[in-house]
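Table S2 (continued). Query chain:
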Amino acid sequence: MKTLILAALLCALLAQTSAQPFSFDCRDVWRPSKNRCFIFVPKAMTWTDAQKNCLRQGGWLTSVRDAEEYAVIQKVITDAKGTGLIWLGGHDITQEGKWRWTDGTPFTYANWRPGQPDNWQGNEDCLHLNAEGRWFWNDLDCETPLPSVCAKNL
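Corresponding output:
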């Protein structure tokens, strides 16, 4: 009788476990933070190609929601030995001066370098960070090949 009860409990437990919906966790080199994962992509690509690369991995070029999250993104970059200019998911391609994130979240946090964005020569529509010094943001020509940071939701 004990064996029968144990078998029934085991079957119920297995059924409950297998009925759980699949949830993504941050595997391999993705870094978790709150409800998202981040990865530094060292290969230099145009902003558009970097976004396509992130989409292939199930994410997008990262947005930055607040200072705490930006600190996590900085750590992802430094842990991967990233330096220099790096693409993030901000752009004003559709309307000059109206910055948007590729994931559709509101643009509520910014860390622009003083005097930026400036749309220098009328051709700077994509957001990059400078992974040196104070980690300020700047706008840049989207065709410039740079490394990038991707994000995806958990």
